[in-house]
Amino acid sequence: MTLAEESITKPVFLVGMPASGKTTLGLQVALRLRKHGKPCVFIDLDQVIEDMAGSTVVELFAESEAVFRQIEQQALQQVVESTLDFSVPVVIACGGGVVECEANRQILRGQCCIYLDCAVPVLAKRAVQQGGRPLLSGIVGVAGNSQRMEAEMASILQRRRSYYEEVSEAVLEVGVDSLEKDVINLLELISIMSKGRL
Ligand SMILES: Nc1ncnc2c1ncn2[C@@H]1O[C@H](COP(=O)(O)OP(=O)(O)O)[C@@H](O)[C@H]1O
Ligand SMILES: O=C(O)C1=C[C@@H](OP(=O)(O)O)[C@@H](O)[C@H](O)C1
Ligand SMILES: [Mg+2]
Q1: Can you list the domains of the chain with their CATH numbers?
Q2: Which co-factor is required (predicted)?
Q3: CB of 134 closer than 6 angstroms to any ligand 2 atom
Protein backbone atom coordinates (compact mmCIF):
# COMPACT_ATOMS: atom_id res chain seq x y z
CA MET A 1 0.00 0.00 0.00
CA THR A 2 1.41 3.42 -0.90
CA LEU A 3 1.39 6.39 1.39
CA ALA A 4 -1.42 8.08 -0.49
CA GLU A 5 -3.64 5.02 -0.18
CA GLU A 6 -3.41 5.01 3.57
CA SER A 7 -5.73 7.23 5.52
CA ILE A 8 -5.47 9.39 8.58
CA THR A 9 -7.89 7.85 11.03
CA LYS A 10 -7.98 10.36 13.87
CA PRO A 11 -7.68 14.15 13.81
CA VAL A 12 -4.03 15.12 13.74
CA PHE A 13 -3.03 18.30 15.60
CA LEU A 14 0.15 20.12 14.65
CA VAL A 15 1.82 22.12 17.42
CA GLY A 16 5.08 24.04 17.53
CA MET A 17 6.64 27.45 17.52
CA PRO A 18 5.35 30.32 15.36
CA ALA A 19 6.87 30.00 11.85
CA SER A 20 7.71 26.31 12.32
CA GLY A 21 5.41 25.55 9.36
CA LYS A 22 2.23 24.19 10.99
CA THR A 23 -0.13 26.04 8.63
CA THR A 24 1.96 25.44 5.51
CA LEU A 25 2.74 21.77 6.14
CA GLY A 26 -0.78 20.96 7.38
CA LEU A 27 -2.32 22.38 4.23
CA GLN A 28 0.23 20.67 1.97
CA VAL A 29 -0.40 17.29 3.60
CA ALA A 30 -4.15 17.66 3.10
CA LEU A 31 -3.71 18.76 -0.53
CA ARG A 32 -1.33 15.88 -1.21
CA LEU A 33 -3.78 13.32 0.15
CA ARG A 34 -6.63 14.86 -1.84
CA LYS A 35 -4.53 14.76 -4.99
CA HIS A 36 -4.25 11.03 -4.47
CA GLY A 37 -8.00 10.63 -4.10
CA LYS A 38 -8.11 10.70 -0.30
CA PRO A 39 -10.48 13.31 1.12
CA CYS A 40 -8.80 15.26 3.89
CA VAL A 41 -10.00 18.34 5.76
CA PHE A 42 -7.49 20.99 6.78
CA ILE A 43 -8.37 23.35 9.64
CA ASP A 44 -6.23 26.26 10.82
CA LEU A 45 -7.11 27.18 14.37
CA ASP A 46 -6.24 30.86 13.79
CA GLN A 47 -8.81 30.89 10.98
CA VAL A 48 -11.44 29.33 13.26
CA ILE A 49 -10.67 32.01 15.86
CA GLU A 50 -11.11 34.78 13.27
CA ASP A 51 -14.38 33.28 12.05
CA MET A 52 -15.71 32.91 15.61
CA ALA A 53 -14.69 36.41 16.67
CA GLY A 54 -15.40 38.22 13.42
CA SER A 55 -12.02 39.91 13.97
CA THR A 56 -8.49 39.17 12.84
CA VAL A 57 -5.82 37.72 15.12
CA VAL A 58 -4.07 41.11 14.96
CA GLU A 59 -7.25 42.93 16.02
CA LEU A 60 -7.82 40.51 18.90
CA PHE A 61 -4.25 40.94 20.14
CA ALA A 62 -4.74 44.71 19.90
CA GLU A 63 -7.53 44.31 22.48
CA SER A 64 -5.30 42.09 24.61
CA GLU A 65 -3.52 38.75 24.44
CA ALA A 66 -5.94 37.49 27.12
CA VAL A 67 -8.90 38.17 24.82
CA PHE A 68 -7.19 36.23 22.04
CA ARG A 69 -6.31 33.29 24.33
CA GLN A 70 -9.88 33.06 25.60
CA ILE A 71 -11.27 32.74 22.08
CA GLU A 72 -8.43 30.36 21.17
CA GLN A 73 -9.53 28.09 24.02
CA GLN A 74 -13.14 28.13 22.81
CA ALA A 75 -12.03 27.49 19.23
CA LEU A 76 -9.93 24.47 20.22
CA GLN A 77 -12.79 23.03 22.24
CA GLN A 78 -15.17 23.56 19.32
CA VAL A 79 -12.81 22.00 16.77
CA VAL A 80 -12.24 18.92 18.94
CA GLU A 81 -15.99 18.45 19.44
CA SER A 82 -16.96 19.09 15.84
CA THR A 83 -14.34 16.77 14.37
CA LEU A 84 -15.29 13.84 16.63
CA ASP A 85 -17.86 12.60 14.15
CA PHE A 86 -15.95 13.41 10.99
CA SER A 87 -15.74 10.42 8.72
CA VAL A 88 -12.84 11.94 6.77
CA PRO A 89 -9.30 12.52 8.01
CA VAL A 90 -8.62 15.94 9.53
CA VAL A 91 -5.37 17.85 9.97
CA ILE A 92 -5.49 20.80 12.37
CA ALA A 93 -2.75 23.44 12.54
CA CYS A 94 -2.79 25.07 15.97
CA GLY A 95 -1.38 28.50 16.76
CA GLY A 96 2.02 28.39 18.43
CA GLY A 97 0.70 29.64 21.77
CA VAL A 98 -2.12 27.15 22.18
CA VAL A 99 -0.05 25.21 24.73
CA GLU A 100 0.26 28.21 27.04
CA CYS A 101 -3.15 27.38 28.52
CA GLU A 102 -3.41 24.34 30.82
CA ALA A 103 -6.99 23.60 29.68
CA ASN A 104 -5.72 23.39 26.09
CA ARG A 105 -2.85 21.11 27.09
CA GLN A 106 -5.31 18.81 28.79
CA ILE A 107 -7.40 18.66 25.60
CA LEU A 108 -4.36 18.10 23.38
CA ARG A 109 -2.95 15.31 25.57
CA GLY A 110 -5.96 13.22 24.57
CA GLN A 111 -5.44 13.90 20.87
CA CYS A 112 -3.02 12.78 18.21
CA CYS A 113 -0.48 15.62 18.37
CA ILE A 114 2.71 16.14 16.43
CA TYR A 115 5.32 18.68 17.54
CA LEU A 116 7.06 20.34 14.60
CA ASP A 117 10.49 21.06 16.03
CA CYS A 118 12.38 23.80 14.17
CA ALA A 119 15.69 25.46 15.03
CA VAL A 120 15.54 28.98 16.46
CA PRO A 121 17.65 30.66 13.71
CA VAL A 122 15.30 29.23 11.05
CA LEU A 123 12.24 30.40 12.98
CA ALA A 124 13.72 33.86 13.44
CA LYS A 125 14.66 34.22 9.78
CA ARG A 126 11.17 33.25 8.64
CA ALA A 127 9.43 35.44 11.21
CA VAL A 128 11.46 38.50 10.25
CA GLN A 129 10.66 37.90 6.57
CA GLN A 130 7.00 37.02 6.99
CA GLY A 131 5.76 39.33 9.75
CA GLY A 132 2.08 39.36 10.69
CA ARG A 133 2.48 37.82 14.13
CA PRO A 134 1.34 40.27 16.82
CA LEU A 135 3.33 38.47 19.51
CA LEU A 136 6.49 39.36 17.59
CA SER A 137 5.33 42.50 15.83
CA GLY A 138 7.63 44.86 17.69
CA ILE A 139 10.58 43.11 16.09
CA VAL A 140 9.37 42.39 12.58
CA GLY A 141 10.38 44.51 9.63
CA VAL A 142 13.04 46.54 11.39
CA ALA A 143 16.43 46.32 9.72
CA GLY A 144 19.03 44.40 11.71
CA ASN A 145 16.46 42.81 13.95
CA SER A 146 17.33 39.18 13.22
CA GLN A 147 19.35 38.90 16.40
CA ARG A 148 16.55 40.37 18.50
CA MET A 149 14.10 37.98 16.87
CA GLU A 150 16.38 35.04 17.63
CA ALA A 151 16.59 36.07 21.27
CA GLU A 152 12.81 36.47 21.47
CA MET A 153 12.18 33.11 19.78
CA ALA A 154 14.68 31.41 22.11
CA SER A 155 12.93 32.87 25.11
CA ILE A 156 9.46 31.79 23.91
CA LEU A 157 10.78 28.31 23.11
CA GLN A 158 12.32 27.99 26.55
CA ARG A 159 8.90 28.68 28.05
CA ARG A 160 6.98 26.37 25.70
CA ARG A 161 9.23 23.48 24.74
CA SER A 162 8.24 21.22 27.61
CA TYR A 163 4.58 21.95 26.86
CA TYR A 164 4.97 21.01 23.19
CA GLU A 165 6.75 17.81 24.18
CA GLU A 166 4.25 16.98 26.90
CA VAL A 167 1.17 17.13 24.65
CA SER A 168 2.71 15.41 21.62
CA GLU A 169 2.90 11.76 20.70
CA ALA A 170 5.62 12.41 18.15
CA VAL A 171 8.21 15.02 17.27
CA LEU A 172 9.18 15.87 13.69
CA GLU A 173 12.27 17.91 13.01
CA VAL A 174 11.48 20.43 10.27
CA GLY A 175 13.23 23.27 8.46
CA VAL A 176 16.48 21.42 7.88
CA ASP A 177 15.86 20.32 4.31
CA SER A 178 13.36 21.49 1.68
CA LEU A 179 9.67 22.16 2.23
CA GLU A 180 8.92 19.17 0.00
CA LYS A 181 11.01 16.90 2.25
CA ASP A 182 9.13 18.17 5.31
CA VAL A 183 5.77 17.43 3.63
CA ILE A 184 6.87 13.88 2.78
CA ASN A 185 8.25 13.29 6.28
CA LEU A 186 5.04 14.54 7.87
CA LEU A 187 2.88 12.37 5.60
CA GLU A 188 5.01 9.39 6.51
CA LEU A 189 4.81 10.08 10.23
CA ILE A 190 1.04 10.53 10.12
CA SER A 191 0.70 7.31 8.19
CA ILE A 192 2.80 5.41 10.74
CA MET A 193 0.92 6.92 13.68
CA SER A 194 -2.48 6.11 12.18
CA LYS A 195 -1.58 2.48 11.63
CA GLY A 196 -0.24 2.12 15.13
CA ARG A 197 -3.45 3.35 16.69
CA LEU A 198 -6.06 1.28 14.93
N1 LIG B 1 9.82 23.41 5.50
C2 LIG B 1 9.81 24.68 5.09
N3 LIG B 1 10.76 25.14 4.27
C4 LIG B 1 10.79 26.42 3.89
N5 LIG B 1 9.87 27.36 4.28
C6 LIG B 1 8.90 26.95 5.06
C7 LIG B 1 8.79 25.61 5.51
N8 LIG B 1 7.72 25.50 6.31
C9 LIG B 1 7.17 26.74 6.35
N10 LIG B 1 7.87 27.60 5.61
C11 LIG B 1 7.62 29.04 5.47
O12 LIG B 1 7.72 29.59 6.78
C13 LIG B 1 6.75 30.59 6.98
C14 LIG B 1 5.94 30.27 8.20
O15 LIG B 1 5.15 29.13 7.97
P16 LIG B 1 3.73 28.93 8.65
O17 LIG B 1 3.16 27.72 8.01
O18 LIG B 1 2.93 30.18 8.61
O19 LIG B 1 4.14 28.60 10.15
P20 LIG B 1 3.24 28.48 11.44
O21 LIG B 1 1.84 28.19 11.02
O22 LIG B 1 3.87 27.36 12.22
O23 LIG B 1 3.37 29.80 12.14
C24 LIG B 1 5.93 30.68 5.69
O25 LIG B 1 6.46 31.74 4.91
C26 LIG B 1 6.19 29.35 5.01
O27 LIG B 1 6.13 29.44 3.61
O1 LIG C 1 2.81 31.79 19.18
C2 LIG C 1 1.78 32.47 19.41
O3 LIG C 1 1.47 32.84 20.56
C4 LIG C 1 0.88 32.81 18.27
C5 LIG C 1 1.04 32.17 17.08
C6 LIG C 1 0.21 32.45 15.90
O7 LIG C 1 0.02 31.27 15.11
P8 LIG C 1 1.21 30.55 14.29
O9 LIG C 1 1.99 29.73 15.28
O10 LIG C 1 0.50 29.74 13.29
O11 LIG C 1 2.05 31.64 13.70
C12 LIG C 1 -1.15 33.03 16.30
O13 LIG C 1 -1.94 32.04 16.91
C14 LIG C 1 -0.97 34.19 17.24
O15 LIG C 1 -0.30 35.22 16.54
C16 LIG C 1 -0.21 33.80 18.51
MG1 LIG D 1 -0.02 29.08 11.48
Answers
A1: 9-184 (3.40.50.300)
A2: Mg(2+)
A3: yes
